[in-house]
């Protein structure tokens, strides 16, 4: 594609520039290290680095044009007032704008995004569609899996994925829309068939600083759709529904586990150790759902998925059958087949609300003790550490407090930050900073009938330390430890 064609189709003005319009564009990037002859380099001002500082370097390496927000003194510069928007548009056009030919569905909110994207994929596939998925665990094209670096990718990767999905025959793509991505306009120019809002609880305040800014970032997704599916049980969800309805132009569907005032609700809910059963009420119809993930928030996730599928026009009976045939999602309330007389569950819960929901769900079905092993992430919102400890202490019968991804922070300082959250509960507590040793101790000291929740890592197969990232897949670690402990006869009772 020629430079002039790229710029014109992206809607960027030429202005005063000496950039050669007939140059064949080879790449659009915001990473100066990737620049070569024919590349278009877009200067992005980030939290740690400003791309404008690398503009001259990009030109020296043969960039056909440098898109900047202010004068960088280059003859090939093209000025635009919002380079993040420009970058998203240029990436879309460079890859042939595949998003215009795909049906996109987005899920946004603090918790539940990954689970719902997989549920939506399953329901759409049951309806005969080929579905791509973009999210935290991995990206998927039909049955093929691809690694994921971010919840919502950089625009260059995002539109390359869209193009690849289109070539593979996908007609739908379901993606997680993170607040960072929405704030940074990674999804600029995309249009969604529907957007689901799950909830909003304290998280990412190291980036957004206030809950209001966090909410406004999430709300941006609903300027990109005319169909909103919103959690009526969440205070921010109620606010969002009211604001969208007042503004007009968006069809809003609400769902609720607790209230029949919503468009879709759950009735006669039965909580089981292996899932939930409930009646799905909506569209003046009643459907029976047997859903294979435990807890009230699993009911909420199923309602969100069903409401969105119905908003997309799928038949009611097909949606009910599809929800009932859904299997669990890796790292989300996943029961590990350990063959022991206690149960080990892996869950990604890593926020106060996520931990509370997971532990509340397990407390409803436990027959022995509920043992929670968790840690708090380093270089993330410090204010939530105490809240996470409180959420765990509120529900757990025993706590093993360890590390998550400490990054460059001192693991013991992270633990000290959280310790005030345990005050007033009296919950027995064991502190083991090394997560490997903590899991080993928890397994060695598990009792018959215990539910052992390993919270925080979920699908992740790594741990980020100060000087390196190590392989750390709890699915593998637990199975290997259990096999060794069984062989050595060291599965002993939990000591308080």
What is the average per-residue confidence, as pLDDT, rounded to a whole number? 91
β-strand number: 23
Structural class: alpha/beta
- The main sheet orders its strands as 8-7-6-9-5-10-11-12-13-14-15
- Residue ranges: pLDDT <50 for 5 or more in a row? none
Q: What's the Cα radius of gyration?
A: 24 Å
Form type: globular
How are the SSEs placed, and which strands pair?
Layout: H1 3-10, E1 27-29, E2 39-42, H2 55-60, E3 65-68, E4 77-79, H3 83-94, E5 103-108, H4 113-126, E6 131-134, E7 139-141, E8 144-146, H5 155-167, E9 172-176, H6 179-183, E10 192-197, H7 205-208, H8 211-219, E11 227-231, H9 235-247, E12 251-256, E13 264-272, E14 275-282, E15 285-291, H10 296-311, H11 316-324, E16 334-336, E17 343-347, H12 352-363, E18 370-376, H13 383-395, E19 398-403, H14 411-418, E20 429-431, H15 435-444, E21 451-455, E22 462-464, E23 469-471, H16 474-488
Parallel strand pairs: 1-2, 2-3, 3-4, 5-9, 5-10, 6-9, 10-11, 11-12, 12-13, 17-21, 18-19, 18-21, 19-20
Antiparallel strand pairs: 6-7, 7-8, 13-14, 14-15, 16-17, 22-23
Helix pairs in contact: 1-3, 3-5, 4-10, 4-11, 10-11, 12-13, 13-14, 15-16
In short:
This protein is of the alpha/beta class and 496 residues long.
Task: Provide an overview of this structure.
- The chain is α/β, with parallel strands linked by helices.
- Helices cover 34% and strands 22% of the residues.
- It contains 16 helices and 23 strands.
- It has helices at residues 3-10, 55-60, 83-94, 113-126, 155-167, 179-183, 205-208, 211-219, 235-247, 296-311, 316-324, 352-363, 383-395, 411-418, 435-444, 474-488, and strands at 27-29, 39-42, 65-68, 77-79, 103-108, 131-134, 139-141, 144-146, 172-176, 192-197, 227-231, 251-256, 264-272, 275-282, 285-291, 334-336, 343-347, 370-376, 398-403, 429-431, 451-455, 462-464, 469-471.
- The strands form four sheets. An eleven-stranded mixed β-sheet has the order 8-7-6-9-5-10-11-12-13-14-15, with helices on both faces. A six-stranded mixed β-sheet has the order 16-17-21-18-19-20, with helices on both faces. The protein has a four-stranded parallel β-sheet with strand order 1-2-3-4.
- The radius of gyration is 24 Å and the shape is globular.
- The termini are far apart.
């Amino acid at each position: 594609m020629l430079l002039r064609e790229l710029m014109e189709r992206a809607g960027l003005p030429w202005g005063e520039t000496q950039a050669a319009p007939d140059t064949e564009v080879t790449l659009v990037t915001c990473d100066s290290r990737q620049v070569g002859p024919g590349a278009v380099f877009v200067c992005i001002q980030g939290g740690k680095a400003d791309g404008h500082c690398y503009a001259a370097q990009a030109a020296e390496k043969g960039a056909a044009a440098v898109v900047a927000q202010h004068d960088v003194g280059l003859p090939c510069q093209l000025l635009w007032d919002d380079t993040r928007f420009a970058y998203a548009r240029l990436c879309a056009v460079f890859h042939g704008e595949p998003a215009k030919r795909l049906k996109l569905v987005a899920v946004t909110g603090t918790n539940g995004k990954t689970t719902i994207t997989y549920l939506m994929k399953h329901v759409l596939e049951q309806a005969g569609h080929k579905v791509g998925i973009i999210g935290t665990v991995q990206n998927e094209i039909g049955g093929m899996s691809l690694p994921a670096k971010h919840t919502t990718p950089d625009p260059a990767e995002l539109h390359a994925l869209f193009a690849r999905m289109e070539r593979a025959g996908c007609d739908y793509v379901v993606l997680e829309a993170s607040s960072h991505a929405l704030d940074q306009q990674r999804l600029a120019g995309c249009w969604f068939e529907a957007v689901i809002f799950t909830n909003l609880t304290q998280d990412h305040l190291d980036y957004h600083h206030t809950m209001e800014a966090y909410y406004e970032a999430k709300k941006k997704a609903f300027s990109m759709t005319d169909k909103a599916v919103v959690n009526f049980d969440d205070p921010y969800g109620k606010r969002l529904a009211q604001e969208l309805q007042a503004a007009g132009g968006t069809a809003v569907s609400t769902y609720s586990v607790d209230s029949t005032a919503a468009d879709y609700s759950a009735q006669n809910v039965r909580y089981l150790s292996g899932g939930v059963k409930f009646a799905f009420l909506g569209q003046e119809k009643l459907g029976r759902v047997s859903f294979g993930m435990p807890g009230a928030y699993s009911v909420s996730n199923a309602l969100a998925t069903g409401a969105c599928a119905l908003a997309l026009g799928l038949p009611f009976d097909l949606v009910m059958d599809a929800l009932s045939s859904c299997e669990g999602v890796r790292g989300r309330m996943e029961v590990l087949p350990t063959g022991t007389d206690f149960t080990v569950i892996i869950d990604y819960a890593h926020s106060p609300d996520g931990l509370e929901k997971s532990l509340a769900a397990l407390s409803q079905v436990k027959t022995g003790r509920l043992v929670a092993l968790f840690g708090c992430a380093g270089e993330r919102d410090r204010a939530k550490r105490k809240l996470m400890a409180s959420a765990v202490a509120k529900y757990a019968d025993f706590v093993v407090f360890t590390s998550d991804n400490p990054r460059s922070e001192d693991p013991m300082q992270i633990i000290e930050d959280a310790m005030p959250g345990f005050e007033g509960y009296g919950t027995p507590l064991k502190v083991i900073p090394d997560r490997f040793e903590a899991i080993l101790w928890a397994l060695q000291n598990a009792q018959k009938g215990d539910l052992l929740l390993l919270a925080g890592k979920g699908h992740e197969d790594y741990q980020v330390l100060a000087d390196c990232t190590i392989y750390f897949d709890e699915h593998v670690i637990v199975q290997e430890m259990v096999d060794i402990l069984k062989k050595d006869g060291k599965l002993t009772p939990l000591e308080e």
